[in-house]
Protein: MFS transporter
Amino acid sequence: MSEQISLWSIGPSVYLPSLLFGIGQGAVAPVIALSARDLGASVATASLVVAMLGVGQIVGDLPAGMLAVRVGERPAMLMATAVTAGALALCLVATSVWLLAVAIVLLGVAASVWGLARHAYLTEVVPYPLRARAMSTLGGTARIGAFIGPFLGAAVMSRLGTDGAYWVHLVAAGVAAALLLALPVPQTRSLPSPTPTSALGSTSQVIRRHLPVLRTLGMGALLVGAVRASRQAVIPLWGDHIGLDPATTSLIFGVSGAVDMLLFYPAGMAMDRLGRRWVAVPSMLVLGLAHLALPLAHGSAALTAVAVGMGLGNGMGSGIIMTLGADVSPTTSRATFLGAWRLCADLGNGAGPLVISAITAVAALAPAAIAMAGVAGVAAAAMGYWIPRHGNGA
Structure:
């Protein structure tokens, strides 16, 4: 199967719906806290509501795997879209902070199901020599969506207020679902029939069977997720610390995101040609060095350089977690395993900002950034040691 057939031919049916869904997610992300504040939440409570999105993804990881096994990838994505639509409608009519929080949790759960189903599908249909490019491109659609979404949301919000962002996501998710139904995709293998054991027991069996991978390479994925997520907290916090205005900090954050976004395909090509280890380890080392340099940034130019370094490090590893999950996934109960695998990374995504917050509370932001640089070093070592070797020297 050539790259032309395996990637470009499935682009409209696989990547376009994911791009649309990602644009919707990107449109909503900046306004969740604003919606909570409009409903009377304090700053701390608004931050907690934002965190509910990650909580929903963590809660949804294992059920997402079970759902994909039982009904198939495309039906699972359509069901996730329906939940997304319901959650967005709840966001639009929410009259209390906690009702909004419930809606945000549901958005996180639906995003988990969507991402898992697409991950499992690509693992099935794309051959190993092109797998990393396929996964990094999938990760790239999320990055592009996160970049475009806020601008599109802002344009609609100029007329509809904060509700406009939720309408953008609602329309984007609806178009994505229509494309899922309308566009043909290569068929995967037949899914196994549901086992006679309970869904929970089946998942437990899969986790126990693959615990050696999950507690080693999976722990590496958790550390990678923590380092990646921490950059989203330390850049704006350090900008505030050195006295930059919010607009300047946002611009610096956007520059970092642009660098990150542009590297997804080169990252996948490097993983396919050089091996996974040659991307994962440098990615963590660059992110670690950027965190280490953060306390030395005393102006906008220096912070921009650090932010670009963080975008470079994160972009270098675009798709690495999905690619490794696909590499080590079993041929049977694959989606269930991938749910457990993604749970490892999502736990790290949730833990990173919490570590920054905890260390900052007892010490300061600079020690927190230095500590996260240490976590990046451990992540690099873990990836270097535990990534399995394949014929291409991965």
Remarks:
- Residues 271 and 278 are 7 Å apart (CA to CA).
